[in-house]
Specification:
about 475 residues; Helix Hairpins; Heat Shock Protein 90; five-stranded mixed β-sheet
């Protein structure tokens, strides 16, 4: 089942079905218990009325049983023999004594003698029996009254006559009203449940369809974007503030980032092709000339072009690895030692470099030695191209990390260009042109490496008047 609407409708219907069935069963059980409780009360009242009359030594034929048809009565003696049944009772079950034919008993018509002084109370009145105050014994059973067979709820109450004879009165209350009420409610539920479930399924289908309509619009637009490869298009954003609107906004943001990434990649490929074309063409020209006229071979120029091509290829390879998400190493490195080592290997630079590193501080960081050395080297190369007379490298502790600041006394970087110079293949003026050795990748590589190491690389105005490139890296964990 691939339709979300169908799954939602079926799921909602199943949940409602389970809830309604559970609620219906609970209602039926509660209703049945209440009605059975009422039947128990009616049976107990009827039994206690008869027991009260027997406790007053009322003769069986004089018992008041006006509702005998609704409340059949059976009286048994201490030995369980049936001594009295109500009029019309033809059969009974569930009362422990299924008989309906009274048998002679010592309790029959046992009424006290008015002259019997032993049975008199202290005030001279005849002694009377009593009705048990214990909870009645309740049971389910059936009875046939005047040819009508039905289910009853029986209550058993004991009565003691004035002669000390204990009789058990069992009176029944019909369960037909309870059964009819339960059947009526059950029928109503069974009739209404399918209708209600159909309504729930239909409403869920329509609501889900309406809710998912913007999703279908997003899907169609994404399919169109995929087919046309036009990343400038955007999916429609609904006016609502729900999750679907958030999905549309996030999708458009993703498309914006993807469009910028693809555009950056296109520019990168175009610029890389251009940068590679120049040294390759120059090297080819020199080799062709040397082939025709060996005496005209410019060997230093060919070597320079080859070195330049090698450096450019290495830069492009590193950028490709960074773009692919290559994670930096986790080696523990000392930034001050890296700076001293890199500066010591640049003895032939145009301008000497002054290093300022405090000896009593810790500059340990985690990262890739090769990549961090590359960053320091790129910053020094940039300073060598633009400095007039002085280059200073300062290493210091800055908050929770180490700061490496490379300063020169050159022309500096205009404030509105301080972010743009970190873009790939960006050269601001002739001093930063290819003829001076820069391809516009050094600073871009330096910032990418710094970012992937959890640090930052920014440019400011140096006290000497030139540019101050500030590299910050977090302390080693």
């Amino acid at each position: 089942m691939r339709s979300v609407r169908a799954r939602a409708a079926i799921g909602a219907t199943v949940v409602v079905t389970v809830a309604l069935v559970a609620a219906g069963l609970a209602v039926l059980l509660v209703l049945r218990d209440n009605l059975i409780g009422q039947a128990d009360l009616q049976a107990e009242v009827a039994a206690r009325e008869v027991a009260g009359q027997l406790a007053l030594d009322t003769r069986y034929e004089d018992l008041d049983l006006d509702d005998a048809e609704d409340h059949p009565v059976q009286v048994t003696d201490e030995e369980g023999r049936v001594v009295f049944v109500s009029k019309g009772l033809q059969a009974v079950s569930g009362t422990r004594s299924p008989g309906v034919s009274p048998v002679p008993s010592a309790s029959v018509d046992a009424t006290p003698s008015p002259d019997d002084d032993d049975d008199d109370d202290d005030d001279g009145r005849p002694a009377r029996g009593e009705v048990s105050s214990d909870d009645p014994d309740l049971s389910d059973g059936t009875a046939t009254v005047d040819g009508k067979h039905a289910d009853y709820r029986f209550a058993a109450v004991e009565a003691t006559t004035s002669a000390g004879i204990t009789l058990t009165v069992r009176a029944g209350a019909p369960l037909a009203p309870e059964q009819e009420a339960v059947d009526t409610v059950r029928g109503a539920m069974l009739t209404g449940l399918p209708v209600l479930l159909a309504v729930v399924a239909g409403v869920t289908w329509l609501v889900t369809r309406r809710a998912l309509r913007p999703v279908e619009g997003i899907r169609r637009e994404m399919a169109a974007i995929t087919a046309s490869e036009d990343l400038a298009r955007r999916v429609p954003e609904p006016d609502s503030r729900d999750e679907i609107a958030a999905l549309a906004r996030t999708t458009n943001e993703t498309l914006t980032v993807l469009e910028a990434s693809v555009e950056r990649q296109r520019r990168f490929v175009a610029d890389a092709s251009h940068e590679l074309r120049s040294p390759i063409a120059s090297l080819r020209t020199q080799l062709e000339v040397a082939e025709a006229h060996p005496e005209l071979l410019d060997l230093p120029g060919a070597v320079a072009d080859t070195v330049r091509l090698q450096v450019l290829a290495a830069d492009l390879l590193l950028l490709a690895r960074l773009d692919a998400g290559e994670k930096p190493g986790a080696a523990r490195l000392e930034v001050g030692a890296l700076v001293r080592e890199e500066v010591s290997q640049r003895a032939g630079d145009r301008i000497p470099v002054t290093v300022e590193v405090a000896e009593d501080a810790s500059y340990e960081v985690n990262g890739s030695r090769g990549q961090l050395v590359r960053v320091i080297g790129n910053l020094l190369d940039n300073a060598q191209r633009h400095a007039a007379h002085r280059i200073t490298v300062q290493v210091a502790v800055d908050g929770g990390g180490a700061r490496v600041e490379v300063r020169d006394d050159g022309a500096g970087v205009p404030e509105d260009e301080r972010e743009r110079i970190f873009e790939r293949f960006v050269r601001l003026d002739d001093a930063r042109s290819r003829d001076d050795g820069g391809a516009g990748l050094g600073l871009a590589i330096a910032r990418d490496v710094a970012t992937r190491h959890g640090g930052t690389l920014t440019v400011h105005r140096a006290p000497e008047g030139g540019a101050a490139f500030r590299l910050w890296l977090p302390h080693a964990a």
